[in-house]
Amino acid sequence: MHAWPASEVPALPGKGRDLQIHDTATQGTITLAPGPVARIYVCGITPYDATHIGHAATYNAFDLVQRVWLDTKRQVIYVQNVTDVDDPLLERALRDNQDWTELAERETALFREDMTALRMLPPQHYIGAVEAIPGIVPLVERLRDAGAAYELDGDVYFSVESDPNFGKVSNLDAEAMRLLSAERGGDPDRVGKKNPLDPMLWMAARPGEPSWDGGSLGRGRPGWHIECVAIALDHLGMTFDIQGGGSDLAFPHHEMGASHAQVLTGEFPMAKAYVHAGMVALHGEKMSKSKGNLVFVSALRRAGVDPAAIRLALLSHHYRADWEWTDEVLAEAVARLERWRAAVSRPDGIPADDLVEEVREALSNDLNAPAALAAVDRWVERQLVTDGDDESAPGLVSRTVDALLGVAL
């Protein structure tokens, strides 16, 4: 599966700072100082509707991570999956009387278009769950043969009790886990499971549903969590720098994935930092496909909204915050974009060297994009009322905003 084209990232004078980021597992801020190559895995879409503002906010957060690392002159290996076979996708295809593969391909293509328009840097490895199945089957067989998985009516489940570190990502108690498991795709009430929290590794073929050859597992399709594990281990190995996604993935997805990988490899942890973006609401409720209260990036673009304004709207909120999308949020972003473009369109200006360092400092401090925007706002306000004589300043500001915030002026 191919990703989307990369926009050029301008080089800035000097060098960026190491990233301090909030780690869900330790509930504290840690400093990530990778070697010459930084490694990040971000969970991708299930392509039955793409791309709403909640998606865009999540991918914007991890785009900032890439930009901070690139500014430190590191290479970045970024991996993202597409869950291109799953119950919600199949249910939507059945509801709309569509072929599920055509639905997945169409929505994935639209996602690519939206990411390109928003200038999100693409992953080097963009992998669909279906194409990963040949690598998933041996992992499930290994877990089963090691006694860390068991069969139930043809399905294969992972035993969470096989991992002594289970629970160290989300730090939730058993009752909270059980409630979230039921809410987020698990089946804690299924009779015969050793532990209600045990997640499915391999689902035996169901009538009328797609299935693949699973070797000794029989025909079927993979569970949700093992897909990302197989892709991450194949392209990043263990103890990569960041496992990222929305805050609703901390449990069960990232918790279960970490346990799968840790049992498979005998290493801990799967990732140095578990980083989660907040949820975006609309009309007082979390934006979600199940509720249908969605604002789509593609719809905004069709309505003539500049993608740079959409990106500024996302950047105006800290990535870990839960916030609400409103017409006012977008209007403020449109106005900010106009001011910024007016300021850098002048032939000369006030010095901007300090601004570069202010933006770097803000982003290195747990991706504090609102502080970075405020720094640019201050320069813009002075620029619009001051006769400067630095001919290089407007260009430096444009390159800084592009390189570090992904906004093209």
Can you walk me through this structure?
Helix content is 43%, strand content 16%. It is of the alpha/beta class. The chain has a domain at 305-405: Four Helix Bundle (Hemerythrin (Met), subunit A) (Up-down Bundle). It is globular and about 75 Å long.
Distance between the termini: 31 Å
Report the CATH C-level class of the domain at 305-405: Mainly Alpha
User: Structural class of the secondary structure composition?
Assistant: alpha/beta
**How much strand?**
15-25%
What is the 3D form? globular
Count of DSSP E strands? 14
Q: Please give the largest β-sheet.
A: 5 strands, parallel
Query: Mean pLDDT, nearest integer?
Result: 96
Order of helices and strands: EEEHEHHEHEEHEEHEHEEEHHEHHHH
Order the strands across the largest sheet as they lie in space: 5-4-3-10-11
**Given the structure, what is the number of helices?**
13
Radius of gyration: 22 Å
The CATH superfamily of the domain at 305-405 bears the name: Anticodon-binding domain of a subclass of class I aminoacyl-tRNA synthetases
Low-confidence parts lasting 5 or more residues at pLDDT below 50? none
CATH topology of the domain at 305-405: Four Helix Bundle (Hemerythrin (Met), subunit A)
CATH architectural designation of the domain at 305-405 = Up-down Bundle
The level of helicity is: 40-55%
